[in-house]
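Table S2 (text version). Query chain:
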Amino acid sequence: MAPLVSRRHYSEINPTPIFHLTETEEMLKESVARFSKEVILPKVREMDEAEMMDRGIVEQLFEQGVMGIEIGEEYGGSGMSFGSAVVAIEELARVDPSVSVLVDVHNTLVNTAFRTYGSAALKKKYLPRLATGTVGSFCLSEPASGSDAFALQTKAIKSSSGGSYKITGQKMWITNAAESEIFIVFANIAPERGYKGITAFIVEKGMPGFAIAKKEKKLGIKASSTCVLTFDDVEVPAENLLGNEGEGYKYAISLLNEGRIGIAAQMTGLALGAWENAVKYVWNDRKQFGKYIGEFQGMQFQIAQARTEIEAARALVYNAVRVKEAGGARAGEGFVKEAAMAKLYASQVAQRVSGSAIEWMGGMGFVREGLAEKFWRDSKIGAIYEGTSNIQLQTIAKLLQKEYKV
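Corresponding structure-token output:
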């Protein structure tokens, strides 16, 4: 019987640790962490109470280069990797998940859509703006179209000349809407074809008939704007078609799979921020019965368990990142399962850890003077947007069934 492993195929090169960052990623991590603590942290509570993103912070995010991480330098972007975007999202969430999701949606959904599906003319027109000073929104969800994203009712009618389209309908739960000037809007040009009629368009703020309506008042990530958008015969030039007619559903699926890794990173960053905020308090500030409360064995076990779960969630996130960057786990499979698992588990861990952190801190965790209660409120959205936890479980189960069913 031949040996299972031939010596000539044996490699002396050890696999790279999953948390190993490239030099560029490490430098970005340090830069974003410093910016978060020095610039964002002093304004976190104020923005949360006002339910509004500080305009100065948005401007500085562009100045720091984190709004165009994957956009090429020829368009004014940073020309970095997807992994770099995830590192930045995670670091921002350790201080403020609201700022983190603004950066996440702008990079992983909007910028990626233009880079991947935009024509040369659209890239030349919009990528420099998106990289240097203009926020973008991804407009898919509607009042009756949430988890069933392709049941959308917004319609687009092509003019007889073919030179434009008129969009009519309503979008809901649109992140970044109040800050945005560029919107990727999904509308159906052939409702009789179902989801195969869904097409993506570029709409700009100020186009006649387009309005940013109600701004939602939310439980968490309150500084992040979430708005209703209305379209009343909004005329969009044909050159603002993103990709091809009827392929919008394909684009949305692909983009959301990538975006889920970004949301998972937001959740791991949030969990780590909540954990750090609490342990600094229980190990350095509050004493009971003559010693710091973090020194009691019961507390230490909870703290250790929470940090272990955070690192497990981060391992899923960075595994998904590297699988995505490598072009998929296996040919044709992509990174769908890895992204779904990362998003599912990271959102679960974020809720558990941020909730426990409040209890560890006692009264100081419950009041709005600190950040503990905010981290918990912010964590709840992780199980809802960019695919609910049940949708992630369904996705994972389908892929596992495909793998094991005879």
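Notes on Table S2: The radius of gyration is 22 Å. The first helix runs from residue 23 to 40.
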